[in-house]
């Protein structure tokens, strides 16, 4: 089970009241909400390994170089201390909880894995593409739909509609949902665009048109080639839209496609009995942050899956 960790703790933060606080009065709604998610996911989907995939760089410069608007609206107004690093806008009550989340995950034995100059999506893409066991990707990010692959037992557990309405996406259910195959999804997303990521898409081309074009021409290269060929039957308006977006379409797939070949540090994601040191850390964290029943549920769910 690969967790898109930031996506989950943001959802937890917004889904659990900020009146959930530690003994010292600090909000711990994101921490407790994430623990409840882990308990629910572990119990329902019964993984043998869990990885908390991390954004070591939430807005890699190489992606910004290709599309300058990439995640621009999420950049904090304050200048970064490092000229090459943008600061992400994070709610004031969430920021202090992120280090606590990392501590709690470590104490639970769940490795936190990131990669320099890459997002959690790329870590997930690499691990999902090279795993020798079935994979469940847990995310609210539609871009990761491109990883669905029945032939390798890779599914996406989509949290976009909330934890009470999880969607399990396989090849067939993804095609039924979007009209495209997993292999076509990145091209589909590039054409459709995504305001939440600052991707403009092709002006005037929505999901239905993008899916229709992919069904007819196979992939983005085929669509661009068709638009450039006057002998190919294509409506004048669609042809003009594709031609006008030629520069964008040249670079968009490089931004939307997740990296699948990162060199990641070694780690052990097997769910195993907690060591005395981990139990001591969990007790300390529970006392300090008042994690209560949320921590208990996560511990019990993981204990039920221990190898």
Task: Please characterize this protein's 3D structure.
Mean pLDDT is 94; it is low at 78-84. Helix content is 46%, strand content 7%. It has helices spanning 5-15, 29-45, 61-66, 97-108, 120-130, 171-178, 182-192, 207-217, 220-228, 236-244, 246-256, 276-289, 292-303; strands at residues 2-4, 51-53, 112-113, 135-139, 154-158, 167-169. Strand 5 and strand 6 form a beta hairpin. The protein has 307 residues and is an alpha/beta fold. Helix 7 (182-192) crosses helix 8 (207-217). The chain has a six-stranded mixed beta sheet with strand order 3-2-1-4-5-6. The protein is built from 13 helices and six strands.
List keywords for this structure.
six-stranded mixed beta sheet; 6 strands; 46% helix
Low-confidence stretches: 78-84
Q: Helical amount among residues, as a percent range?
A: 40-55%
If strands are numbered along the chain, what order do they take across the biggest sheet? 3-2-1-4-5-6
Structural class, from helix and strand content? alpha/beta
- Tally of contiguous helical segments: 13
Task: Spell the H/E element sequence.
Answer: EHHEHHEHEEEHHHHHHHH
Q: How many strands, which pairing sense, and closed or not: the largest β-sheet?
A: 6 strands, mixed
Distance between the amino and carboxyl termini: 15 Å
Give the percentage of residues in beta strands.
5-15%
Q: In total, how many beta strands? A: 6
> What would the average pLDDT be, to the nearest integer?
94
Taking all Cα atoms into account, the compactness measure Rg is: 21 Å
Specify the overall morphology.
elongated
